[in-house]
């Protein structure tokens, strides 16, 4: 049944809903969207203008509307929020988890943000929001939500279950109960299963698990992602420097961070320097693409200069020019392969499993083997096509050297950039290909110069 709903949303439903919105068919909209996953509604409404989207959301339950709004892309959300008054915004802010509420408030001007906060009736929600707004967006404190279930270590099972009922009204997902002392210091956690199986009168201190993985409020989001992925966690508690429980980060927040990181690295590897979308204006798209295009252009001029230095050699042996694309393309491909593997290793921290010397020796061994295989193939094809053994030897020798050097540069460059605090994904884009074009041309003509 769920698969049919998803199919309808992706094919015919959006068009039918658009007609209903245009004609203000309130009955159809309410009946059709009842029971539909909010994520599917979000995807559909992103194709509408802000006024039509607001009309649809005003017909839905405020809890559903709040979830839909929290799922909107940032660019769509900014336009969408302009159609809401402070009073209307405050209504759905109250229904959201505190971390989602802060994300939305941060998209607004400080004046409107203050107006909205003043209109929120739930004082606890206000306290949570103001607390979270103190943290940067890219640290654990900025990712966490204040809503969680916690129990005092001295409580009985009955007291804890009663507290779960009370706290659970504000917590959408309950993975485990965090155990704290009288000073709110995190001591451990206890599973719902253990509490249900425990005898009446049992105290939390007798059944809770002391070992619990947590992160500090100032922990970088990349480190939070790495920890949760490593230990396969659905949620992780956040503590301050004194060990006090401040909030928790759930898997949905981590998935959002992972998606943002993957998008950023994809753009960098493509030579795009900003986070842009296809529907951004022409100036934004141009500004994001031009830096690396300029780098590539300058690199090409240097490449042309390298070729000019060997004009006499090319004039004597014109056939050398025909192999330039082979050398540059192979060197660029090898460098991208090497750098991409290192970037992936850096992202998962596996690059630190081996020492730098062991990793370097492995890179050299792989490069030598690849270089040898490609050199044999290049020699065979060159001799078959040209019937010139000297040229074939030059091409094969140059290619093997270029493969080795490109592998080394593709491995070392991302590590150096990472040490300098620069996203190593930049090494997998035009930077590495341009650098290796120059390197490949220099090696190729030097080998030809000395051998011919």
Question: Strands, helices and their partners?
Answer:
Elements: H1 2-22, H2 26-33, H3 38-45, H4 50-59, H5 62-70, H6 74-81, H7 86-95, H8 98-105, H9 110-119, H10 123-132, H11 140-143, E1 150-152, H12 157-167, E2 177-180, E3 186-190, H13 192-197, E4 215-216, H14 221-230, E5 235-239, E6 245-250, H15 251-269, H16 282-309, H17 311-316, H18 324-348, H19 356-386, H20 389-419, H21 430-451
Parallel strand pairs: 1-2, 4-5
Antiparallel strand pairs: 2-3, 5-6
Please characterize this protein's 3D structure.
By secondary structure, the chain is mainly α. The protein is about 65% helix and about 5% strand. It has helices at about 1-20, 25-35, 40-45, 50-60, 60-70, 75-80, 85-95, 100-105, 110-120, 125-130, 140-145, 155-165, 190-195, 220-230, 250-270, 280-310, 310-315, 325-350, 355-385, 390-420, 430-450, and strands spanning about 150, 175-180, 185-190, 215, 235-240, 245-250. The chain has a three-stranded mixed sheet. A three-stranded mixed sheet has the order 4-5-6. Strand 1, helix 12 and strand 2 (about 175-180) form a beta-alpha-beta unit. Helix 7 crosses helix 9, helix 18 packs parallel to helix 20 (about 390-420) and helix 20 packs antiparallel against helix 21 (about 430-450).
List keywords for this structure.
452 residues, three-stranded mixed sheet, 6 strands, elongated, disordered N terminus
**Strand element count:** 6
**Structure class:** mainly alpha
- Cα-to-Cα separation, first versus last residue: 73 Å
- SSE arrangement, N to C: HHHHHHHHHHHEHEEHEHEEHHHHHHH
Instruction: Give the amount of beta strand, in percent.
Output: 5-15%
- Count helical runs: 21
Spatial sequence of strands, sheet with the most strands: 1-2-3
Radius of gyration computed on alpha carbons: 30 Å
Based on the structure, what is the oligomeric state of the protein chains? single chain
Helix percentage range: 55-70%
């Amino acid at each position: 049944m769920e698969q049919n709903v998803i199919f309808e949303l992706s094919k015919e439903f959006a068009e039918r809903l658009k007609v209903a919105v245009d004609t203000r068919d309130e009955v159809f909209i309410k009946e059709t969207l009842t029971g539909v996953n909010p994520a599917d509604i979000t995807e559909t409404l992103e194709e509408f203008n802000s006024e039509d989207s607001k009309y649809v959301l005003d017909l839905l339950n405020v809890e559903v509307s709040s979830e839909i709004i929290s799922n909107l892309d940032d660019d769509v959300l900014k336009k969408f929020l302009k159609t809401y008054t402070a009073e209307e915004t405050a209504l759905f802010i109250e229904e959201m988890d505190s971390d989602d509420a802060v994300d939305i408030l941060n998209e607004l001007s400080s004046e409107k943000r203050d107006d909205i906060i003043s209109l929120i009736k739930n004082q606890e929600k206000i306290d949570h929001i103001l607390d979270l707004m103190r943290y940067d967006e890219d640290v654990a404190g900025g990712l966490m939500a204040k809503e969680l279930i916690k129990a005092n270590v001295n409580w009985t099972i009955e007291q804890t279950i009663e507290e779960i009922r009370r706290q659970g009204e504000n917590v959408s997902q309950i993975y485990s109960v965090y155990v704290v002392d009288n000073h709110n210091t995190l001591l451990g956690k206890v599973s719902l299963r253990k509490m249900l199986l425990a005898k009446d009168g049992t105290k939390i201190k007798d059944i809770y698990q002391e070992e619990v993985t947590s992160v500090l409020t100032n922990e970088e989001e990349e480190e939070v992602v790495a920890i949760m992925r490593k230990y396969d966690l659905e949620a992780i508690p956040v503590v301050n420097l004194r060990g006090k429980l401040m909030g928790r980060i759930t898997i949905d927040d981590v998935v959002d961070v992972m998606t943002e990181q993957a998008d950023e690295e994809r753009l960098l590897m493509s030579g795009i320097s900003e986070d842009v979308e296809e529907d951004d204006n022409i100036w934004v798209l141009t500004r994001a693409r031009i830096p690396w295009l300029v780098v590539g252009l300058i690199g090409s001029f240097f490449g042309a200069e390298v070729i000019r230095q060997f004009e006499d050699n090319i004039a004597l042996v014109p056939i050398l020019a025909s192999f330039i694309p082979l050398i540059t393309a192979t060197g660029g491909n090898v460098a991208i392969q090497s750098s991409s593997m290192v970037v992936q290793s850096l992202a998962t921290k596996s690059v630190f499993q081996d020492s730098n010397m062991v990793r370097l020796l492995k890179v050299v061994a792989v490069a030598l083997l690849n270089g040898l295989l490609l050199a044999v193939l290049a020699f065979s094809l060159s001799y078959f096509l040209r019937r010139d053994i000297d040229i074939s030897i030059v091409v094969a020798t140059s290619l093997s050297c270029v493969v080795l050097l490109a592998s080394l540069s593709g491995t070392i460059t991302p590590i150096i950039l990472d040490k300098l605090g620069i996203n190593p994904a930049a090494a997998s884009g035009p930077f590495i290909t341009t650098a290796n074009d120059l390197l490949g041309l220099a090696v190729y003509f030097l080998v030809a110069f000395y051998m011919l």
